[in-house]
Specification:
This protein has 376 residues and is an alpha+beta fold. Helix content is 36%, strand content 21%. A hairpin with a 7-residue loop joins strand 9 and strand 10. Helix 7 crosses helix 8 and helix 8 packs antiparallel against helix 9. It starts with 35 loop residues before the first strand and ends in an 8-residue tail after the last strand.
């Protein structure tokens, strides 16, 4: 890989033609790298300072090239100690070959993630080059903020049901004989409902953990998607919603669908609950055969859930499947649609959101049929 070497102070970096000094023939130049790259020669002078290093450090390459490493890249640790003096790459232990990645500070307090490699011609020989990689900390900060928001949301959502459970159980234990059977039943039903709420929240957290780590398991079985939707509609009607609030349309014939029935139920539950709670008018569910989202398969199954409410603002469309999105009506953890997207994608499917013909919200997910090989 070419590093655009120069030993004169203030030298400008010129991009060589693809393949120059590149025995692998890959045509890779330091400016093609996504991370910052700084290379110092055996004399400790900077011979490479790529475009990502310029962006991350806000130091022009023309100023860095040819300078001593400690001057071109004046790093300090979080305790204010000068990093290059502390690590002494050229005069330190002869067996040392690297510095692991850590947070360091540039002048002005700008934080960067830095790792270093000491290149020696032979073990314990003198350092020929110091190769430094730089990464911006913004991505890590976003992850940390997301985790902090998740903890705050969970703490808030847990506090209410646990306070209720504690209050009712303490009251029942202290004054059991003073309450009628009906009062006791009402209190215990409230405790039971709040315990279910806590259980659902814990299940959501486990789902998020599995989705984020890529460990969400899908146990495929034959799924009658029309019957699954019908069960959810019956549950809403039994809970008091009018039957004409729902319109289920199934295009026949449908391909046999192999999916995880529990997880598909979770997807349907979230989408229907959103339509009922946040939408208005008739909730329409269309189930159709469609092209498979998976390469190599011809057919798939598509489910569209739409309502006649105000819909989702155009500027919010790209945030619907992110964590903590709750739309205009507050309530809930804002994690449901993030989990829905993770489940659909774990099946090899896709999910989209848009505006329904009746101006409401329209969610559409498509699953490959994923039939086992022995049925092909």
């Amino acid at each position: 890989m070419s590093v655009g070497t120069s030993s004169a102070p203030g030298a400008h970096r010129e991009r060589p033609p693809a393949g120059a000094d590149d025995p692998g023939g890959l045509g890779i130049h330091p400016d093609d790298l996504p991370d910052g790259l700084v290379v110092a020669d055996r004399h400790g002078r900077v011979i490479c300072f790529n475009a990502a290093a310029e962006r991350i450090t806000a130091i022009p390459a023309a100023e860095a090239l040819g300078q001593r490493l400690e001057k071109a890249l004046p790093l300090e640790d979080l305790e204010g100690r000068r990093w290059w003096q502390l690590t002494d790459p050229y005069g330190g232990l002869a067996i040392r070959v690297r510095q692991p990645e850590r947070n360091l500070l540039l002048p002005g307090g700008r934080e960067v993630l830095v790792a270093a490699r000491y290149v020696r011609a032979e073990p314990t020989g003198p350092v020929q080059r110091v190769v430094v990689s730089l990464r911006d900390t913004e991505a890590r900060r976003r992850t940390e903020r997301s985790h902090a928001e998740l903890i705050a949301t969970v703490a808030h959502e847990l506090r209410s049901p646990l306070t209720s459970v504690k209050g009712f159980t303490a009251t029942l234990l202290a004054k059991w004989e003073r309450f009628t059977d009906d009062q006791k039943r009402l209190m215990l039903e409230t405790v039971d409902a709040d315990a279910d709420r806590v259980t659902r929240l814990i299940a959501e957290l486990l789902d998020i953990s599995r989705i984020d780590s890529g460990r969400l398991e899908v146990r495929r079985q034959p799924v009658d998607i029309g019957a699954a939707v019908g069960r959810h509609i019956q549950a809403y009607v039994a809970a008091g919603l009018p039957a004409d609030r729902f319109l289920l349309r199934i295009e026949q014939p449908l391909p046999d669908l192999w999916a995880d029935p529990d997880k598909i139920d979770q997807v349907l539950s979230n989408l229907l609950e959103n339509a009922v709670r946040h939408g208005e008018g008739t909730v329409t569910i269309d189930i159709t055969a469609t092209a498979s989202p998976r390469e190599g398969e011809d057919t798939g199954t598509s489910v569209t859930v739409s309502d006649e409410g105000p819909g989702i603002p155009e500027e919010s469309m790209n945030r619907v499947f992110t964590r903590f999105w709750r739309g205009s009506k507050r309530g809930g953890t804002g994690l449901g649609l993030y989990i829905v997207k993770g489940i659909v994608e774990a099946h090899g499917g896709t999910i989209t959101v848009g505006r329904a013909p009746g101006a409401g919200a329209e969610f559409r997910f498509t699953l490959p049929v994923s039939a086992p090989a022995y049925l092909a």
